[in-house]
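pipeline: protein-struct stage 2 | run 1193 | Reverse transcriptase zinc-binding domain-containing protein
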Amino acid sequence: MRTAKTVLAAVKLTHGCIKAVGNVRSGTNKTMEDEIHLHKHESDKLPGAKLSTMTQALAYKGIKEMKETATRKATNDNIQKIKEASKVNFSTTPKSSAIWKLIRRKDIGRNVKNFLWKTLHSAHRIGKYWEHIPECEDRVNCMHCAEVKSLEHILLVECALSHQKEIWELAKTLWAKMHQHWPELSMGSLMGCGLASFKDEKGEPLDRHERLYRILISESMHLIWKLRCECVIGCNGEPLIMHEVHNRWLKNINERLEEDMNLTNYLKFGRQHSLLPSVVIDTWKGTLLEEEKLPDDWLRVTGVLVGMAPMRSHRSLSPPVGRRGRNR
């Protein structure tokens, strides 16, 4: 039980010391050693933790284990939706622990992680959240469709304020440059986008396809949510113009591509946060603009974009006219 260094010594020649020396001499003449049990007794175990080895993360983990976390029905329902969607699309049923780990992947941005975490807990302040709040009952239903404004309504139902149809078509178009199979979209498949699994003809996993799918689905989900909030809060319920939605999505994906390229700088971001150059190249291979003209290692080349052109408004179709009526 003593943790400090312990030294035993014979202070003076006593009867007990003489007997101990005799035991030592007789022990040297044994042909087989005695079996000595050095295990601590249960009553000798000290409770608590060593302050010398304690960390904040370890203390937080211990506090969470001591507390009983109450399960929420909405959370359990969402976990079940993810399992069912994964079984339908990818023929696998993931564990609940794997589902919670998916939102901690490095492929998913911080803001998108927060959005997914709230989505799994049904913690967004929309729809039925406002039912029992005085003078806020009108926020329950969508101002455009008059249906309950749930997250499924925002992400999947063809509502003009969400622009989800246009955004999912853009994501599907870019995805078709690499893979022909586009999984069926549902709330379970959207929340469990990190569990997507794609394989080639030999049954080998396609890691780069899985990573691109996670990026496209998570970024598109978050953009649909942001555009919906802008339309309802900033535009008084007026939907955005088609070319604005197209260009916002394209800008979002190009920024995500640029972020991946920057994260390959090992000296700047370190081992924990940097990405392997091969991972980024394999992820975006086949989706870049004029990729045949790019070098093999295009990570340090400026102006690399995905292979989709921005959409111009009707006003910008004709070139600007100069002061004297001639085109500049």
